[in-house]
Amino acid sequence: MGQKIHPTGYRIAVIEPWSSRWHGGKRNFAKFLLQDKKVREHIMKEYGSAGIPRIEIERTGEAVNAVIYTARPGVLVGRKGIRIDQLKTELQAICGITVHLTIHEVKRPELSAGLVAENIADQLRRRMGFRRAVKKAVQSTIQAGAKGIKCQISGRLGGAEMARVLTEREGRVPLSTLQANVEYGFVEAHTTYGKIGVKVWIYKGDIDRGKMIDYRALSAQGGRFERGGRGPRRGGRGRGGSQGGRGRQ
Fold first, then answer.
1. Residue 202: other Cβ atoms inside 10 A
2. Is residue 107 classed exposed, middle or buried when 0-12, 13-18 and 19+ CB atoms within 10 A define those classes?
3. pLDDT over 90 percentage in the chain
4. Is the CATH code 3.40.50.300 the one for domain 11-105?
5. pLDDT value at 223 more than 90
6. What is the mean pLDDT of residues 67-84?
7. Long-range contacts of 128-136 (CB under 8 A, 24+ apart)
8. Could you name the CATH architecture of 108-223?
9. Where do the domains of the chain lie?
10. How do residues 137-179 score in pLDDT, each as one tens digit?
């Protein structure tokens, strides 16, 4: 199961909070869902250079509250707040009602799966060696305090005629454990040889039963999770040791 299901969707309402929080009923559900999709796509397309791993959307009767997590808030806000005012105007045109923006800085981008995947994809676009890019990302994430990371890139690596898959893993990544906080990120790198998919799983520790991840508090703390009161536990299918999957170093 751990190889087939999205890690975030698997943990929704257990330890992972919903990224869109509102109630639209049968009449407005489809419209609000489409608006959320357009808002996220617009922000990532026009302001993706600010390093945005997560966007949360909340709705009230009169306004839409968009919470944006970014590793480079200065790029998103712009000089004297020009870019953030422009973004607010564009989002109000999409939603048709008042939009309030809240910016949260990601203190430790090395612990964000989306930002790590974007970093690897950016290096692949600049024709850096794919093995070096993946190993460097794995080392920096482990040094930042993660308990485990798994990176997988697939496509015409290095311009090869046949597509293949490269996987690098260090530490534990228990994909089948619901209480394990495993963050997942996926980015496509558009190169001269075609698309290269980059997937990243980062395991940050266990969450106590009955509690949810608070991303706003974590952005202020730097993103580190502490293990709950239980003892150590094996990873999914017993392959989550420091030696990597299936006995490979």
1. 29
2. middle
3. 62
4. no
5. no
6. 89
7. 129/158, 130/157, 130/158, 130/166, 130/196, 131/166, 134/166, 134/168, 135/168
8. 2-Layer Sandwich (3.30)
9. 11-105, 108-223
10. 999 999 999 999 999 999 999 889 999 999 999 999 998 899 9
